Amino acid sequence: MSAIDITDLAGAVYSSGKVFDGLTTGRLDTENFLRSGSLAGVSSRADLALLEDLRDVAQFIIDHHDRLIDAPYVRAINAQITRSGALHPGQLRTRDQQIGVRTRYGRHTPPALTEDDLQQLIDSLTCEDATENALDLFVQLAKAQPFEDGNKRTALFVANSLLIGGGRMLVVPVDEQDPQLSDTFNDLLAKAYIRDEHDAVKDLLRKHGLTVLAR
User: Is the Cα torsion angle 68, 73, 78, 84 positive or negative in sign?
Assistant: First the structure.
């Protein structure tokens, strides 16, 4: 694990920033930012704040790769990811907030989770295969929307906590030459939210989201 550097997670940082939050900084400039702090190609304060949060959460999962994935760990990841953008980083949303997401298939407003509920969700995903467990964690955490903000980013980096020790990484499917890829991913994730159709988005992630870490 000591051989893993934060730049090895550039794919997760870049793809989640671009697809989930509209990051305009390019892939190479994102890598350079992670490597040296270079601001070349970082054209807005919003992009810089997003990259700083994603950089810090990438370093966080590297530093805590051997920690048990439990509810406090998931909250700690969310606190890192939303530090610059949320009012209550790492805090579970409440029922009164009625926070949800709009999808092309309707609004998705799942029940608010308590700490115990979040732990039960994690404990319910018991696949012995680390890759399949990571895919389930990503989809189920994103779908549960436990936080006020940053739920998909949180789900992605929690999933990567299971993978990076084995030399693999989960990225969001994105291809600058094929904008349809990320749109298809968003469409299938929305179907998982609204229709409980999980297999198709996991199939897409197996094909276009799983990569080998270059050490």
Answer: negative
